Fold this protein.
Amino acid sequence: MERVNVLIADDDKIFSELTRFVLEEHDFDVVHAQDLGTTMSFINLKRIDVVILDLHFPRYEDGITALKEIKSKFPHIPVIMVTSEYIDIVGKVVEAIKCGAYDFVEKPIKEERLIITINNALEVANLKSSLSSSKNKSLDLIGNSQKMAHTFDLIKEAAKNDEPTLIVGEAGIGKKVIAKTIHKLSDRSENDSIYINCATINKDYFEHEFLGLKKVTSSGQSNEYYGNLELAHNTSLIIDNIDLVPINLQDKLVDYINTKSFKKIGGNKEIRADVKIIATTSKDLSDMKNFSKALYDLFTNSIKIPPLRERKEDIIPLINFLVKVVNDINHTSFSFSESFLKMLENYEWLGNIRELQTKIIYLLINANNEIITEDQFDFNLILNDHLFEMPFKNAMKELEKDYLINLLNRNNWNVADSASKIGIDRTNLFKKMKNHKIKPKKKTNSR
């Protein structure tokens, strides 16, 4: 069996050596880096499976920067954050999870907790890899709702022509997958699409990345750097987070779309390139002061992906798909109880498909019984990590809403029974439901 390679990114030598000793006792291969440059070099040069990253890395600085750098270049590698238990870390932990960290553990680390966390992180990474390479239908393209049926129609129409396409939707909704689907359905699918994420480009190098560079050295030698427009000739260029493109480059993109030609930085020659532009954003570009109206108007194909909370009828099919794929991969037979499925269906899923996939896989990996019930987990702790970002008053209101929905689900939406069980008047419960915009549902037949 191939050994697992773990990278410890921490400038605390004593902690790193103790952790190395523990991991090597469990047959992990371990390397250690004390700064970000060495960390990135190790990941580039070695097959790193897991990174253990100090939240304060390097010392007195913020490991969030290192986390973003690692996840932008190596999104498939799970990162486990470590931090001292003697400091206020709640805000940083939430930020780290949002930036892609798998989990966090406190120093001094307990051996059993660390090994379990690493093994779970590896299992989640392997499942995600299997899901992405699966021949089954993509998770992001599952949906029986009318809103998703309309979205599928727009995807097919966008694939039929070469006009620029803009995909708009919240984070985690699957914009990148939909962009790649449009390319695969188009007549350019024989060539691989070119992908560029504007969130990972240094602000000084945007034009280089898009247009390329022609530079003559002092010795008279000509050096060329090929930009993504040139590389995407006869295929599609997927521009993720197009709202981050600087305004001066936006004007050049307008010129390119209108003429199908451009000039490299430092070059005089017009370069022709036949490229289908597919862009994504989570912003309302029509309302952005620093986004060109001329560029926005050129996106004649526009697809707005509805958030998961607006198509709740798609949630259970999505969960069932995930359960089937995970069961097929692991040769297991897990399923969720009907009451737990109802709770999951009524959850808001503010992180959309990405959050659903991560948390359902977590529940499947950590389940103790084949039929998974809400009683096996601290349900609110698993699902409601977004509450840490809210003001206290708003968070309490959100928790009360979740509590009431779960209470009503458990009592088959019988308001009188639900009110009686928590010791309040039925009229009072109706008022609370109205305040939270919880609509009464028809009671189902007893099972």
